[in-house]
């Protein structure tokens, strides 16, 4: 047994960490920068996965395909299609407070799942798409995994650097200004709806990218491959635990949450079979509880956004802006 | 004459910023007292500070000698001070009668005597008791707002700009109602934009500017002071 | 299609399903009205209520109908406990934070159901119930019970909100929270009452969903979208709107199979939601926009 085989599990973990890191940055743009509540990010992830799969696979009977495009085109397609789906959603919902966006994005994710399940010609429905190619996938297994980690890691670094540059450019400052005080931003002549829509589409495109990266790892995709609630929720807890508004924070969150999630799986896999299945739900319960604990004791996250002056006061922990009522000074309401 | 409601050297503000620096005033039984002054003087803020709606940094507020500084609105209402905010002062989706019932929320037992008294003060509203309050005219809404506050039989009624946006006819009517309320044994502290008219019918007045007391005295005396008239009452 | 098949195959099932949505939507709209946030754990609380009824019925050997009141009480208490544990301390924060917390609570509730009762489909009763024929209109007994109980609950709620002092206080808090506080209405009691009502109705909606279809750990999550669509269609904060909205969504879902493939039936509520947000975000009864 050569040394590479010992790296298989950690490498596998780290590839997922990078994919989740990409999702977390995408959500951070929406929630951390723009205060938008996307509760259906699994849908955008799935769109990315399917798009890249369709674009890069060879011809298969009965479904759209046979484009045989190289990997980068698959990823680009994933980003474009996810971003474009975000456009009408944002158009309709961004006028309102984020509760509406949340419920509509849940609907979008559901619609996408149903399309994947139903439309034979597009997604091959329940049988899914197989034989998705992977760059350097012809290498021996351990090397191929390592090579893919390098690719995914590199993409994540590029995404991080580009988004960080954007965040410190006037665009990022404007986003935060809109989030923290929408009225003032409007008064200064900022085009709030357009800026918000940009953030929503950009974030969704990154979620699509993550989906593309996932499908070339898994090399196959079926409608039930993604547990929408679980994926969505894990990314949310990564962003909130890490520190929404801070890309380094959300990446830290991705690392921590993914390690907790995977390590707990290793533990519960040791249990007898009848408990092992239930233990999965126990882990999900604990992830839900972790969110409550973070919201209670460290709502600004582990690495808070630096620009925020008063992390615990009204309006500081991201969000609402959107037509939020000025709070009465009574504390209880 | 003993002070019913007394504010002593109040310093207060929202969040970090102070708006009132040093405000003192008092209302005795059976008095109508007006707070006037330029925009941004802190008139409404002074009134809200009585109700614990902003952070009081120093000073005390007493009602009948009892210190109520920092109490919750709910306890202050029970202590006999009722407050009519300038805006959003009625339950617009509920009937006139239900507004009054909500005014009497803290009362235990029968409150029909208070209800009769309120309808006696506002006879117009008796016919509209089943009407949704939000559909009434501006003047009638102000009456609903005052009626709601009177349902607890307060000792002092605080009115924040009761005549804002009303026609002169309604303004006169509100002032007349204030006198009727006083006649029923309730003292009134009101903030007014229409300084001259308010001082003319008030027993006493306070002129506030930049978060501090500037002048005080009887209504007619303040009106007669040329300096005050020029500086604060619009000539 | 003659009138009888329209009523038997579309209208009646739609009304039954719609009244189930209405029960959930009333809770959603009340929580919005009093606390001003969207409560995303509503569906999973309904699942919990449905399984509680199953458990109680099995434990005591009761008919599921007798277990319903127990489930309602348990869910009402659970709702208060959830508020106390997870939402109460967030009241000073932007409202959307509580919505996020409720998303987490949804996951927790679902996990609890899955741990205790597993993920397999089950039902309250075995066998097929025969519909009664009333002059050509065929109603199954459990459908009749669903409609009667829902009507009863709605009347009781209406009387509470218009006749009872605390019911009026709830409306006052929804109408003008600042003035309600100035009138001495105890915010915490109103919030607790809101949770009792919303939680209880939630359990009832889960129970009737289970009675008319089947019990699954995802049953509540799957009605979250139609329930929200019903609340928003009716007008946020409007009880009567939630009822009408629920019925419209339920009937539309049933009728949708005439025009779209049945696989996409679940999306008709989503389409309604989008149309309402586009054309009339205050809903049919001029509700609040948050």
From TrEMBL, chain A:
Entry protein name: Branched-chain amino acid ABC transporter permease
Domain of life: Bacteria
Transmembrane is among the record's keywords: yes
UniProt keyword annotations, A-Z: Cell membrane, Membrane, Transmembrane, Transmembrane helix
InterPro entries in UniProt: ABC_transp_permease, LivM-like
Membrane spanning residue stretches: 6-29, 36-57, 69-87, 99-116, 146-163, 199-219, 225-243, 250-268
Membrane-protein topology: Multi-pass membrane protein
Single GO cellular component term: plasma membrane
PANTHER family: HIGH-AFFINITY BRANCHED-CHAIN AMINO ACID TRANSPORT PROTEIN BRAE, HIGH-AFFINITY BRANCHED-CHAIN AMINO ACID TRANSPORT SYSTEM PERMEASE
Keyword Membrane part of the UniProt annotation: yes
Pfam families in the cross-refs: BPD_transp_2
Subcellular location: Cell membrane
MF annotations from Gene Ontology: branched-chain amino acid transmembrane transporter activity
Coiled coil start-end: none
CDD domains: TM_PBP1_LivM_like
Automatic annotation (TrEMBL), chain B:
Keywords (A to Z) from UniProt: Amino-acid transport, ATP-binding, Nucleotide-binding, Transport
SMART domains found in the cross-reference section: AAA
InterPro entries linked to this entry: AAA+_ATPase (IPR003593), ABC_transporter-like_ATP-bd (IPR003439), ABC_transporter-like_CS (IPR017871), BCAA_Transport_ATP-bd_LivF (IPR052156), P-loop_NTPase (IPR027417)
GO MF annotation terms: ATP binding; ATP hydrolysis activity; branched-chain amino acid transmembrane transporter activity
Domain ABC transporter, first and last residues per copy: 5-235
GO BP: L-amino acid transport
Top-rank lineage group of the source organism: Bacteria
Family the entry assigns: Belongs to the ABC transporter superfamily.
PANTHER family in the cross-refs: HIGH-AFFINITY BRANCHED-CHAIN AMINO ACID TRANSPORT ATP-BINDING PROTEIN LIVF (PTHR43820:SF4)
Name of the protein described by the UniProt record: ATP-binding cassette domain-containing protein
TrEMBL record, chain C:
Membrane-traversing stretches: 6-33, 45-62, 68-87, 144-161, 190-212, 218-236, 266-285
Family named by the database record: Belongs to the binding-protein-dependent transport system permease family. LivHM subfamily.
InterPro entries: ABC_transp_permease, BCAA_transport_permease
Molecular function as annotated in GO: L-isoleucine transmembrane transporter activity; L-leucine transmembrane transporter activity; L-phenylalanine transmembrane transporter activity; L-valine transmembrane transporter activity
Record flagged with keyword Ubl conjugation: no
Major site of localization recorded for this protein: membrane
Organism: Microvirga makkahensis
Membrane topology classification: Multi-pass membrane protein
Compartments reported by the entry: Cell membrane
Record has Hydrolase as a keyword: no
Gene Ontology process terms (BP): D-alanine transmembrane transport; L-alanine transport; L-isoleucine import across plasma membrane
Protein name (Swiss-Prot/TrEMBL): Branched-chain amino acid ABC transporter permease
Tree of life domain: Bacteria
A single cellular component GO annotation: plasma membrane
């Amino acid at each position: 047994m050569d040394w590479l085989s010992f790296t298989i599990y950690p490498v596998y973990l780290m590839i997922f960490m990078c994919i989740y890191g990409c999702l977390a940055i995408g959500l951070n743009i929406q929630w951390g920068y723009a205060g938008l509540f996307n509760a259906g990010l699994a849908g955008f992830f799935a769109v990315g996965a399917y798009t890249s799969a369709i674009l890069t696979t060879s011809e298969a009977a009965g479904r759209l395909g046979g484009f045989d495009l190289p990997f980068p085109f698959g990823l680009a397609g994933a980003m474009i299609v996810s971003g474009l789906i975000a456009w009408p959603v944002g158009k309709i919902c961004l006028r309102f407070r984020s509760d509406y966006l949340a419920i509509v994005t849940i609907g979008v994710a559901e619609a996408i799942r149903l399309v994947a399940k139903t439309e034979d010609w597009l997604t091959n429905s329940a049988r899914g798409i197989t034989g998705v190619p992977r760059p350097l996938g012809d290498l021996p297994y351990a090397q191929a995994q390592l090579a893919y980690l390098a690719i995914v890691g590199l993409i994540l670094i590029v995404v991080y650097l580009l988004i960080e540059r954007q965040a410190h450019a006037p665009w990022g400052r404007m986003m935060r200004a809109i989030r923290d005080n929408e009225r003032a931003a409007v008064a200064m002549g900022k085009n709030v709806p357009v800026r918000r829509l940009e953030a929503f589409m950009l974030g969704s495109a990154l979620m699509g990218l993550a989906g593309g990266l996932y499908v070339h790892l898994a090399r196959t995709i079926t409608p039930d491959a993604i547990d929408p609630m679980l994926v969505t929720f894990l990314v949310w807890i990564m962003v909130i635990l890490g520190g929404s508004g801070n890309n380094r924070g959300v990446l830290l969150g991705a690392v921590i949450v993914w390690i907790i999630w995977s390590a707990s799986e290793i533990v519960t896999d040791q249990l007898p079979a009848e408990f092992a299945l239930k233990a999965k739900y126990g882990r999900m319960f604990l992830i839900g509880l972790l969110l409550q604990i973070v919201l209670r004791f460290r709502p600004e996250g582990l690495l808070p956004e630096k620009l925020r002056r008063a992390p615990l006061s009204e309006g500081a922990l991201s969000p609402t802006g959107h037509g939020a009522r000025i709070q009465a000074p009574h504390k209880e309401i | 004459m003993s002070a019913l409601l007394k504010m002593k050297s109040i310093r207060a503000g929202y969040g970090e910023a102070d708006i009132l620096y040093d405000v003192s005033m008092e209302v005795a039984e059976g008095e109508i007292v007006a707070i006037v002054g330029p925009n941004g003087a802190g008139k409404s803020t002074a009134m809200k500070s009585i109700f614990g709606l902003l952070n009081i940094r120093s000073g005390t507020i007493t009602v009948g000698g009892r210190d109520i500084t920092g109490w919750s609105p709910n306890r202050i209402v029970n202590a006999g001070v009722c407050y009519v905010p300038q805006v959003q002062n009625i339950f617009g989706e509920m009937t006139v009668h239900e507004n009054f019932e909500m005014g009497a929320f803290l009362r235990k037992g029968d409150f029909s005597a208070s209800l009769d008294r309120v309808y006696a003060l506002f006879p117009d509203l008796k016919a509209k008791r089943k009407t949704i309050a939000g559909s009434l005219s501006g003047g009638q809404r102000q009456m609903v707002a005052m009626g709601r506050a009177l349902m607890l039989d307060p000792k002092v009624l605080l009115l924040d700009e009761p005549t804002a946006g009303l026609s002169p006819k309604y303004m006169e009517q509100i002032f007349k109602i204030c006198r009727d309320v006083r006649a029923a044994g309730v003292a009134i502290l009101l903030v007014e934009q229409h300084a001259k008219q308010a001082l003319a019918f008030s027993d006493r007045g306070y002129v506030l500017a930049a978060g501090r007391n500037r002048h005080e005295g009887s209504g007619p005396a303040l009106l007669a002071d040329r300096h005050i008239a020029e500086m604060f009452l619009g000539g | 299609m003659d009138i009888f098949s329209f009523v038997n195959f579309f209208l009646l099932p739609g009304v039954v399903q719609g009244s189930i949505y209405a029960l959930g939507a009333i809770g959603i709209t009340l929580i919005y009205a009093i606390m001003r946030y969207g409560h995303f754990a509503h569906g999973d609380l309904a699942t919990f209520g449905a399984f509680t009824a199953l458990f109680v019925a099995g434990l005591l050997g009761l008919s599921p109908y007798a277990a319903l009141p127990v489930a309602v009480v348990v869910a009402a208490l659970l709702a208060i406990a959830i508020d106390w544990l997870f939402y109460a301390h967030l009241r000073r924060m932007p409202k959307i934070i509580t919505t996020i917390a409720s998303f987490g609570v949804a996951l927790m509730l679902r996990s609890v159901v899955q741990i205790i009762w597993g993920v397999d489909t089950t039902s309250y009763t075995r066998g097929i119930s025969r519909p009664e024929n009333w002059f050509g209109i065929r109603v199954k007994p459990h459908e009749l019970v669903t409609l009667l109980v829902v009507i009863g609950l709605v009347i009781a709620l209406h009387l509470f909100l218009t006749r009872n002092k605390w019911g009026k206080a709830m409306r006052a808090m929804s109408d003008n929270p600042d003035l309600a506080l100035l009138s001495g209405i105890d915010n915490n009691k109103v919030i607790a009452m809101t949770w009792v009502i919303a939680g209880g109705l939630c359990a009832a909606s889960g129970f009737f969903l289970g009675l008319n279809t089947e019990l699954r750990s995802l049953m509540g999550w799957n009605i979250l979208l139609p329930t929200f669509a019903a609340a928003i269609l009716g007008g946020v904060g409007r009880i009567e709107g939630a009822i009408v909205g629920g019925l419209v969504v339920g009937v539309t879902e049933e009728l949708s199979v005439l025009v779209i493939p049945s696989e996409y039936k679940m999306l008709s509520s989503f389409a309604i939601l989008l149309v309402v947000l586009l054309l009339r975000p205050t809903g049919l009864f001029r509700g609040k926009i948050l």
